Amino acid sequence: MIDTLIPEHHDLIDIMGPRISFATPVSAEEGYCVILSVVPAGAVIPVHSHPDRETLYVIDGRLEGLLGSTWQTFGPRSVIDVPGGVPHAFRNGSGQEVTALLVTTMRMGRFFKEIGRPAARSATLIPPGPDQIAALASAARRYGYHLGTDEDNAAVGIYLDV
């Protein structure tokens, strides 16, 4: 599915598991940023929050989303709207990759660009290493984004092996 969602000439960036490609150029301007996203099977986006609103439109696959304290499953043509400041998490336990369109702030686009690393087009999940996690934590502090603790994640059934 990645080849039909993200054209070959687009750069692909790994964001701690999920792979993204910017549909709109990332700039210093404010406004919205449109991102094409592929979430590999087994990928987990731990509990976090940020002041930026983000809206995901699931194109294909099934993605579990935690908004506040309730897990929900979102399938094709589902919209996941996360207001700024709301703790949330995502996981793909379906066994198949999930493709989605993400609309968020240009600020979050710049954050993703900063923490991302070049990605292969394969569907293989490559867990982040200690250096990537340290870079994420540092960037999150600078942007004012909150990363959940191990206890926050365990409380909602997410256990990280890092």
Automatic annotation (TrEMBL):
Q: Domain of life of the organism in this record?
A: Bacteria
Coiled-coil-forming residues are none
Q: Per the record, a Pfam family? A: Cupin_2
The Cupin type-2 domain is annotated at 37-103
Q: Which SUPFAM superfamilies match?
A: RmlC-like cupins
Q: What is this protein called?
A: Cupin
Q: What is the lineage of its organism?
A: Bacteria, Pseudomonadati, Pseudomonadota, Alphaproteobacteria, Hyphomicrobiales
